[in-house]
Design brief:
The structure holds two protein chains of two kinds. Chain A contains twelve helices and no strands. Chain A is mainly α. Chain A has one domain: ABC transporter involved in vitamin B12 uptake, BtuC (Orthogonal Bundle), CATH 1.10.3470. In chain A, helix 1 crosses helix 10 and helix 10 packs across helix 11. Chain A is globular. In chain A, 55% of the residues are buried. The model of chain A has no long low-confidence stretch (mean pLDDT 89). By secondary structure, chain B is mainly alpha-helical. Chain B has a domain of 229 residues. Helix content of chain B is 77%, strand content 0%. Chain B contains 16 helices and no strands. The chains are: A mainly alpha, B mainly alpha. The interface between A and B is large, with 46 and 45 residues.
């Protein structure tokens, strides 16, 4: 098997697996930059995946080939709605943000499975008819070599994800809104003194995280799993959290980390068909994202520091 | 209302709110809430068999709750109980299948192996926290997944020949008891509950009655003050994680040596470690509270299995209720304000 053929398998697969991680990781970035830790990403992805699948199954006759995209919007809205719970608990009621996130995770999987049984009378949904499908992107796929490697046999969602990463970078680092968001996460009291509404900024941060994680779940469900059951999202949200840290709380870093983790995930699945990997147990590839994250935090791969006020509720007048 | 009273009332209100919202969900989805709760009760206490199963379920819950609570009391958040439980489970099974020894050596050895494995798994985040100031929440989450994949790999390649589960542990390493099983109409109740209760006592004694426990709590309250008083902050952080991990490993031993007797490939987490967070929170991180909280969640979980059969309600409803209880305990600031308002009105 030549290098070209190997790359032709690996690159589209990496992009496929990375897309949900990019969306969700960026979501986490907005939340944590505003100072709210969001362990609930996993649960938000679960609810996104559930919503997308149910919407897709229900409205496929109405929207036709546009169904997966409309379903993504629905997943986005429901993800944002669920994240309100996390926001209310951790911002207004000053709950421990980690505990609230754990509650979101437990709630999401419980509620999604409860509703699946309620709607379909069984533990797993049917397989959707119209998911995201492989396409050759017009024009770009005609570019020699690069077109074939990156833009053929791939998914639009991966490129949307990358575009959103650049958009997030622009919003966070080039707009007044982004500056305020980060200020609230680094030093809420200073931000408050300058007239920034800390509570409002944090609510927005958490809502964006819910929306993006919902999309992430929707993308995963409609391009990878194609149905929804108890194990559809198992660890994707936490891996996105890992990407957030490995990417050092920077949107483009998050994107890079997500692409790398997508690469590791796809290798663990297709590795046995590649000549140089068939003798390596895939357990190494499975644990690679997590081990790398721990190493990144420890400082072996450049130090990763969280936003300063991340995880602490802001109480006006408290010093 | 005194603070002591509030600490008892707040969890009760949280449980009531959780059940209330669960009821509303059932009414909204057209299920019969009354028959669902009757089915839940029957599924937990209707027959002696079910009660035996409840106590079996309570056993790992107590230990997982202790693990979370011990870390909490010393200022750490151990989300990695799940991973430590899984490695404990594997270690206990490993010792259980690898040796043939007399029971009075084999069983303690298997139990201790589980505790040691859990402790080792928690040692890493403890060390990283102490030496590199890395937040333990993220490291323990990552360690959960490493544990899941590594144990699956070991089960598949080392403990079996490409099979999905190991063979059964030797009888000499088992916690199973024909006596307890006979007493409860052949449920899977085993001696582990005694180990769990002893551990509750150990935690209380260690934290409240020893110098070391005082140090551990002091470091949790204020690292700088403890450092100034001459305590080693980093050593206490590591020790706290190790003890917490040992409790978690024991929870794994309960599943390995008592309930199942083997280890199987896992597609996902057992959930016991995360429910342990709920147990610790609701129990207020205290020994007595943990026992009651474990009883509540254990009977909810076991009773729920009867809900689809008797009332046609999906058992996930109980997962929703548990999640809501965690949520309401976490947001207890809201409940405390509410209690203050109500009790002030009473004074007027």
């Amino acid at each position: 098997m030549g290098l070209m053929e190997i790359l032709l398998i690996i690159i589209p697969s990496t992009l496929l697996w990375a897309a949900p991680l990019i969306f969700t990781g960026l979501g986490g970035n907005f939340s944590e930059s505003s100072g709210v830790v969001n362990i609930g990403l996993e649960g938000l992805m679960v609810i996104g995946a559930f919503t997308a699948i149910v919407f897709n199954l229900t409205f496929v006759d109405v929207f036709g080939s546009m169904t997966p995209w409309v379903a993504l919007l629905a997943a986005m809205v429901v993800g944002a709605l669920l994240s309100i719970l996390h926001a209310v608990a951790s911002i207004t009621f000053r709950a421990d943000q980690v505990v609230s996130g754990v509650a979101i995770n437990l709630l999401a999987i419980g509620a999604a499975l409860f509703l699946v049984k309620f709607i379909y009378g069984k533990g797993q949904t049917d397989i959707i008819q119209k998911g995201f499908s492989k396409v050759d992107i017009p024009f770009l796929s005609d570019i020699p070599v690069i077109g074939k490697l990156f833009f053929s046999n791939t998914y639009y969602t991966s490129f949307v994800a990358i575009a959103v990463a650049f958009l997030a970078w622009f919003v966070m680092f080039k707009t007044p809104f982004g500056l305020r968001l980060r200020a609230v996460g680094e030093h809420p009291m200073a931000a408050d003194t300058m007239g920034i509404n800390v509570t409002r900024m944090r609510y927005i941060g958490v809502l964006i995280s819910g929306a993006l994680a919902g999309i992430g779940g929707g993308v995963y469900a409609q391009s990878i799993s194609s149905d929804f059951g108890h194990a559809t999202i198992s660890g994707q949200g936490f891996m996105a959290l890992a990407a957030l840290i490995f990417g050092k709380w920077h949107p483009l870093g998050v994107m890079g980390a997500a692409l790398f983790f997508g690469f590791a995930q796809s290798l663990s699945i297709i590795g046995s068909s590649l000549p140089f990997l068939e003798n390596i147990p895939n357990v190494y590839l499975l644990i690679a994202p997590y081990v790398l994250t721990i190493l990144a935090l420890t400082g072996f791969i450049g130090r990763a520091d969280a936003p300063k006020a991340s995880g602490t509720p802001y109480i006006k007048g408290k010093r | 209302m005194s603070n002591r009273m509030k600490n008892i009332v707040v969890p009760l209100v949280a449980v009531l709110l959780g059940v209330l919202v669960g009821t509303i969900i059932m009414i909204a989805t057209g299920y019969n809430a009354g028959s669902a709760f009757i089915a839940l009760w029957n599924g937990a206490f209707g027959e002696i068999y079910y009660t035996g199963e409840v106590i079996r379920q309570v056993t790992p819950y107590i230990l997982a709750g202790l693990a979370v609570a011990f870390a909490f009391r010393t200022g750490l958040f151990n989300i990695g109980v799940e991973g430590q439980l899984i490695v404990g489970w594997l270690a206990a099974v490993w010792v259980g299948v690898a040796f043939e020894l007399p029971k009075f050596i084999h069983l303690p050895l298997a139990v201790l192996a589980a505790a040691a494995a859990g402790a080792l798994w928690a040692f890493i985040p403890g060390l990283l926290k102490a030496k590199f100031k890395v937040h333990e929440v993220i490291v323990t989450i990552m360690m959960n997944y490493v544990a899941l994949h590594v144990t699956n790999y070991i089960i598949r390649t080392v403990l079996s020949e490409k099979s999905d589960r190991t063979e059964m542990i030797a009888e000499s390493a088992s916690l199973r008891s024909p006596f307890l099983e006979g007493l409860t109409d052949y449920s899977r109740l085993h001696w582990g509950i005694l180990i769990a209760l002893v551990c509750v006592f150990i935690m209380w004694f260690l934290l409240e009655k020893t110098t070391k426990g005082y140090e551990l709590r002091a470091v949790g309250f204020n690292q700088h003050a403890s450092d100034y008083a001459g305590m080693s902050v980093s050593r206490n952080i590591i020790l706290s994680m190790v003890i917490s991990g040992a409790f978690a490993g024991l929870a794994g031993a309960m599943e390995a040596l008592g309930t199942f007797g083997y280890a199987a490939i896992k597609g996902g987490f057992t959930g016991v470690g995360f429910d342990g967070i709920a147990v610790a929170l609701l129990g207020g991180n205290g020994p007595i509270g943990i026992i009651f909280a474990a009883l509540l969640f254990g009977s909810l979980k076991v009773g729920a299995l009867n809900m689809p059969l008797e009332a046609g309600v999906p058992n996930e409803l109980v997962d929703i209720i548990i999640a809501l209880i965690v949520f309401f305990v976490a947001a207890s600031y809201m409940i405390r304000i509410l209690i203050d308002r109500i009790s002030k009105k009473g004074v007027k």
